[in-house]
Amino acid sequence: MANYYTDHPEFEFYLNHPEMKHIVELKERGFADKDKYADAPVDFDDAIENYKRLLEITGDIAANVIEPNSEAVDLEGPHLVEGRMHYASKTYENLDATRKAGLWGISMPRRYGGLNLPITPYSMASEIVASADAGFQNIWSLQDCIETLFEFGSEEQRQKYIPRVCAGETMSMDLTEPDAGSDLQRVMLKATYSEKDGCWLLNGVKRFITNGDSDIHLVLARSESGTHDGRGLSMFIYDKKQGGVTVRHIENKLGIHGSPTCELVYKNAHAELCGNTRFGLIKYVMALMNGARLGIAAQSVGVSQAAYDEALSYAKERKQFDTTIVRFPAVFDMLSRMKAKLDAGRSILYQTARYVDVYKTLEDISHERKLTAEERQELKKYTRLADAFTPLAKGMNSEYANQNAYDAIQIHGGSGFIMEYKCQRLYRDARIFSIYEGTTQLQVVAAIRYITNGTYLGMIKDMLSREVSESMKPLQGRVAKLVTLYEESLDAVKNAGNQELQDFVARRLYEMTADIVMSLLIVSDASSAPELFEKSANVFVRHSEEEVCSHHTFIANLKAEDLVYYRQVENGAE
Asked: What is the 8-class DSSP label of residue 176?
């Protein structure tokens, strides 16, 4: 019987990573819960075993419930009935199975009914669910919106809402509007305080809201009249039980059909303020989006895995000229690159998750007691690492999911263009990953300051100085040569002193950064587990050499005046 956890030993490798011991000890506060809760671990080994059991349950449900339902969900999709969204029939089976298994609110503290899982194993569960059905993963993974309520809401709000999510109630984050997509400063949904009702009233329209008819919403709205920027926005909690919100439209999308994307109309909807006014965008949404971006990275890796599995299985069975096509160099080249991108992408996903685990847990502890000087330094360090790695993990994995899904169809040939084959659904599902929760272009914007100020370069040199196995030293040496080219490119852009030129090559610098970081991560993983990662390390470093050398050549030969050639479309429009 298939199991999407036990079928992939890479998960256990990352669960046993040396940094996990520190993460678990922080998360469990010295295992203080063991005397209060029967399911609380008594030590580190017990905690890891708990995570493995939960992931094994997730893998079983993903392989034997969610994936078999995925085709029917894709064909049926959600329905709009009298202003309410109704999921596809089989989605209710998926919800029932995950609720009965206790897979909701799993990162929340036990005192609210959660399982107190760190972000790293939660991200693994998210990847596993996505490999079965990316659309259902959207519905299920939005439970991590509760992290923002836990961090910024009052204790009364935590007691009121967190147990409901832990019991399986759904969530959404209502941010975007018809005139406010990536530019959330333009949000105009109006929030006014009603003395009569003793609550805030929300009025306006939200668009492109994933799982928009959920039970509990986090809503970005304009609380300060007369303002037109981010400083006038606050975050609110809307409970569907209160009424006042209807679904006007469900989008007819290219992919992720099981995940309803809604247009919502708010008419005097009763809501509670989450945190303080004016911090909705500049503080709370940023925290919400960083968590969501890690979730999309996990979703992307899950679909990359599914695409690779479909392509490999087909290539082993399909014969042309009396030979299985997996033996053709053109095909095994594609397959090896797919696997290398999958493994390197997974490596940066879980490295980022570990960074997030440390800083988020230390932040939680700081609300309980004063941190020591050493802990404050650690919090500062890991906040910076998580902030730097998140745009790399989200941006690159979402692009790799698209590339792997594309190659899966190519390996299927004409059959891949036929709707009966799963690879076409993976292709359609993957396309949104590099768009929502911040496009790849916005991930470049988030990363560029760390590129130009040398933060990534410092991290890379630190990673390059670490010891690797003898078999990996030649690859490490080749990556070191790429770092030299990377530095030359950085210097060339800085010396040009031209902001437009820097913006123009930012995507190339971003990809060079990610290629080198992921090369060093997969080389490190291959040093510890060559049976899992040695082949991918060799292929990925070669892939990085192609890209870094290409980008280096482009930047070395580019001058500010050359940009005129790229303005032809702009000039034509004028």
From this structure: -
Query: Quick one: 496 exposed, middle or buried, by C-beta within 10 A (0-12, 13-18, 19+)?
Result: middle
Hey, is 330 helix, strand or coil?
helix
Contact criterion met (CB below 8 Å) for 23 and 361 = yes
Provide the terminal-to-terminal Cα distance of the chain, rounded to the nearest Å.
62
Three-class secondary structure of residue 107 per DSSP: coil
Q: Which residues of 256-273 are buried (b: 16+ CB within 10 A; e: fewer)?
A: bbbbbbbbbbbeebbbbb
Q: Using an 8 Å Cβ cutoff, are 135 and 204 in contact? A: no
- Closest-CA residue to 340 (of 511, 475, 518, 459): 518
Give CA angle at 70 (65, 71), nearest 5°: 130
Please choose, from the candidates 437, 439, 406, the residue with its C-alpha nearest in 3D space to the C-alpha of residue 423.
406
Nearest to 349 by CA among 303, 405, 413, 408: 303
How many residues comprise the chain?
574
**Torsion sign across C-alpha atoms 172, 178, 180, 182:** positive
pLDDT at 180: 86
Cα of 322 vs its chain's centroid, Å: 42
Task: Identify any residues that bridge with 262 across adjacent strands, giving them in sequence order.
Answer: 209, 250
Q: What are phi and psi of 444, to 5 degrees?
A: -65, -45
Rounded to 10 deg, the angle between the 440-452 and 455-464 helix axes is: 80
Which distant-in-sequence residues (6+ apart) come within 8 Å of 293 by Cβ?
A: 390, 391, 393, 394, 437, 438, 443
User: Taking residues 452-459, what's their average pLDDT?
Assistant: 97
Cα–Cα distance measured from residue 198 to residue 224, given in angstroms and rounded to the nearest whole number: 18
In sequence order, what DSSP letters do the residues of 116-127 get, joined into one string? ---HHHHHHHHH
The residue whose two tokens read 């292709």 is: 427
Angle at 214 between CA 208 and CA 220, to 5 degrees: 55
For residues 251 and 272, what is the distance between their CA atoms, to the nearest angstrom?
Answer: 28
HSE of 370, CA atoms in CB hemisphere, 13 A: 2
pLDDT tens column, 309-339: 999 999 999 999 999 999 999 999 999 999 9
Q: Cα Rg for the chain, rounded, in angstroms?
A: 24
User: Would you say residue 570 has pLDDT above 80?
Assistant: no
| pLDDT at 181 (0 to 100) | 83
Cα(284)–Cα(406) distance, rounded to whole angstroms? 36
Q: 108 vs 71, 161, 221, 279, 364, CA distance in Å? A: 32, 11, 26, 23, 11
Per the listing, tokens 């469900």 go with: 250
Give just the sign of the alpha carbon dihedral 435, 440, 442, 446. Answer: positive
pTM of the model: 0.97
Strands 319-320 and 84-86: unpaired
> Do the bridges between strand 216-222 and strand 171-174 make them parallel or antiparallel, or are there none, so unpaired?
parallel
3-class SS of residue 180: strand
Q: What is the pLDDT of residues 180-190, one digit of tens each?
A: 888 899 999 99
The overall average pLDDT reported for the chain is: 96
d(CA 269, CA 237): 10
Residue with tokens 């397959």: 335
